[in-house]
Amino acid sequence: MTQDKHAAIFDGFLALVKAPYGDFSGIGKLSKELNDDSTLEQIVNFLRQNPQGERAFKERPLLGNIDLQQLHELPQNTLGYIYSDKMLKNNLKPVPVEKIEDNDFSYLAIHIGETHDIWHIVTGSDTDKPGEVQLQAFCVAQLHHDRLFISLLSKNLLKTALEEIEFAESIMDALTKGWTMGKKAKPLFGIQWNSLWEKPLEDIRLSLDIAV
User: Fold this and answer.
1) Which phi-psi region, left, alpha or beta, contains residue 144 (left: φ > 0; alpha: ψ -120 to 50)?
2) CB-based burial of residue 120 (10 Å sphere; 0-12 exposed, 13-18 middle, 19+ buried)?
3) Which of 115, 134, 124 is nearest to 175 (CA)?
4) What three-state secondary structure class fits 78?
5) pLDDT in tens, 62-104
6) How far apart are CA 179 and CA 197, in angstroms?
7) Whole-number Å distance between alpha carbons of 50 and 191
8) C-alpha separations of 143 from 77, 93, 125, 188 in Å
9) Phi, psi of 196 (to 5 degrees)
10) pTM of the entire predicted model
């Protein structure tokens, strides 16, 4: 890695450290600097070792357009209801449908991005700081060589040390729980979540070996 590359990564990382919590505008830029083609190839090869991941890269399924109001009419114990309820209460919108370029790296980025909020729900990770740390640790365990999620964990640990050391225990508990959960759970990458909207969330967690 060149000196200029290192400098760009450190600049991106420091920008995230300085940004207020909830400002994720710099994540995309840092991801492009960190996850080069070699790193992405390692992630793809790791995910392809599982039949579910192999099938996902071949078929490249996406969530498509999501009607939160329609999902909110499902029974309250279903994935669709719980997901839509969380999104509506937090004034969040599903990630817009993107066109996949004809390569695995493009699908990897789009699929991870559009399913991020679903992973929050399925892993029981809240959207507060410990919840984000828990999900980031889960992602590190599930995505193997992803440099971005390791960097996001590092950012949150540094911000805790600098600004909120009183929350260190809850942050470390969340990191430990997310990592352990991610190692024990079946792979989440490549699941066709839009076929599971009507299924009870607890049944989904049980099938994936996720205990929250």
Assistant:
1) left
2) buried
3) 134
4) strand
5) 999 999 999 999 999 999 999 999 999 999 999 888 888 889 9
6) 26
7) 12
8) 28, 25, 17, 10
9) -115, 5
10) 0.91
How many Å from the N-terminal Cα to the C-terminal Cα in the chain?
39
CA pair distance 83, 125, nearest whole angstrom:
12
Half-sphere exposure (CA, 13 Å, Cβ side) for 193? 28
Residue 106 main-chain phi, psi, to 5 deg: -65, -45
**Cβ–Cβ < 8 Å for 48, 54:** yes
Token pair in block for residue 89: 């209460």
In this predicted model, what pLDDT tens digit does every residue of 6-34 receive, in sequence order?
A: 888 888 888 888 888 767 778 878 887 88
Task: Give me the DSSP letters along 138-151.
Answer: HHHHHHSS-HHHHH
Q: Count other C-beta atoms under 10 Å from residue 73's C-beta.
A: 10
Report the alpha-carbon distance of residue 51 to residue 35 in Å, rounded.
24
- Give 198's contacts (C-beta < 8 A, 6+ positions apart): 74, 75, 78, 79, 80
d(CA 115, CA 120): 9
**Other CB atoms within 10 Å distance of the CB of residue 44:** 18
